[in-house]
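Fold it.
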Amino acid sequence: MRNGLLTVILAGLLILGIAAFLPQAAPVHAAEDDTPVRTLSVVGRGELEVKPDTAVITVGVSEVKPTPIEAYNALSDSINKVAEALKAKGVKEEELQTSMFQLAAEYNWTQERGQELVGYRATNTLSITTQDLDKVAELIQAAVQAGANDLRGVTFQVKNADKLLDDALKLAVADAKAKAELVAGELGAKVVRVHSVSVQDQGASLVKARAGFNMDGVAAEIAPVPVYAGTSTFSATVSVTFELQ
């Protein structure tokens, strides 16, 4: 019995020893593809030109008086007259907005006397929003005739600006795709996927007609000045890198 157990142990050790010298199978690894990825970078541009549908007219009234209270009261009377004249032309209360109100000392400087207080200037700037672009010149005329003596200008806007910017961006992406497919085709390659993309620029070029002059002393009767809305441009630019095959 003892000899049989010893024989089994020796046989096991012999098998293990032989196995140690047998060649081991190497683990299987997926072959790595060292082929560099071919890419093509293009810039796409999209642009839309639309006619404005909203105008914002900015006019102001400025009064200089010996005391602050006199300047304030004079300004209050003048700006109310301007507002009433605009309402008489069909402008609604919600289409009027005070964009600036200021009361400050007014000084004059001469070489002989230096700086002297000449009074107090009160200023109120009013913004008028209208969708009737044909009435812009008429509204300016009404405001000036009612006492507005500071014409700041007119800005033309588009109400659905966000959607138009999105549409311009879509055009830019489509332009980038078309350019990439054209170039790849000429090189005997094929566009397979987008590698990277960035939006470089997106914005609108709105029309702004500036006047920026004081109208003190202008005659009560003035002719309406033609105002042209022109067009507004919405644009977008994208940079896209495509992988080629």
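The two ends are 74 Å apart (CA to CA).
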